[in-house]
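Lecture notes, unit on protein representations.

Consider one protein chain, 417 amino acids long.
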Amino acid sequence: MLNADKLEILPKKWYNIIPDLPVPISPPRDGKTDSSAIELLNRIIPKEVLRQEFTSSRFESIPDEVLEQYLQIGRPTPIIRAKNLERHLKFDGRIFFKFEGATATGSHKINTAIPQAFYAANEGIKEITTETGAGQWGTATALAASLNGLRSNVFMVRVSHNQKPLRRTIMNLYGANVFSSPSSKTEYGRQILEKDRNHPGSLGIAISEAVQYALDNDYRYLLGSVMNSVITHQSIIGQETKAQLEDMEIHPDVLIGCVGGGSNFCGFTYPLIGDKSIEMIASAATEVPKFSKGEFRYDNIDTAGILPQLKMLTLGSDYVPEGIYSGGLRYHGVAPSLSLLIKNGRIKTSEVTEDDSREAMRVFSKTQGFIPAPESSHAIATAMEYASNPSNKGKDIVINVSGHGLMDLSIFGDVKA
């Protein structure tokens, strides 16, 4: 039975931005594969997820079973005023943060992992695959698979696989097989390793391996970001935020979130995007400069070009990013809908260095007590810079803290007061 009190707060439908975009997004097209884009996706994506990927409906009903699982993993997540951060910054305004780190897996990723796993199980699928960078998505997939009676396989980018052993432990605890990518499990992984046994990996390579593994074994592949169905599921963040702010009688002036592929930022902002008085700022890593140096064009989702191509801001699918700790921000591209909204100026952008994000992580932890993920700390750094501008005096800032950083503390080495 659903928890009536919390269920009243949860949105009953996901929001799909596609019918409200200023211009239509360009459709996927074939990359290097012989089969058509849709035929390939039909082989590896759960049918209901694929339907949601291409629907023009503004809203999609959330199944009761998914709502129940949302409640079990900690939704709705809280929105908290960061008064101590305001004092530290001497900011004459208010700062709030939506804390997605309050979920069972510690990030927003579980919001789409649950429905995708639910739909796969409903279709009689027994095993799924995916990739992960820093480990948040892999962790979410592993738990969602377990909750829905599925076995899971996760290809983790090697540099993060080595940096973050506790993420691997959690995925194993949830029942997942975790492979360091590039791996010997797939033909593509073996090709990479033959050229460079010490290749650090990338999300593009890990995606290729996960997709190839699904194709080779007739498994299903769960999408972690970028695709519109994922963003639709993540809209639960923004819908909760909107309702919580209205309950507090607060109208935000600016919404700020970090961007790897775009799912947490889009899920946070899209339900409020119709309000033109709200400024929206997407924050990414300086070391992966897709906002400042990316090209808006068709490109492969994955490095091997197995999946269809999307038209998006991209650094190129063969781009090998620096081994920054914020593994979730290393992806080479940006979701097509977000790319469009950046191109037309509706959404502003910021790029933050790892040093500045680390300092923001330290300040936020000391002032608020919540330890944010390194990825989320890019958004916090952008918000701190925004608050330091005298022209923003008196404004209400809302940050999406997309995950906690309790598994990421080695970013600081030996911590000193």
